[in-house]
Amino acid sequence: MIPNEIGLTPNLYDCGLQITMRVELDDVEYVTETTLTIRGTRRRTTVPKVIVEKLGLQSGDKIRWILFKDGNILVTRVRRD
Q: Which domain holds residue 10?
């Protein structure tokens, strides 16, 4: 189920809507690539230091992964209460 608080409706994938994601380069502060590590059933990726520092992420904080049908992924911080 897709959480409602991110502005997507739970039936978005069933309605035939095609999503196009555009990025304004003037709005981009940082771009990098990281490597995925898979060992058995464990999957790990590293959040770049620049992102951790900029967002003030701490151990135990949550990030949300949103996978679109076209293969794009959106990763966002889950705000603390």
A: 4-77
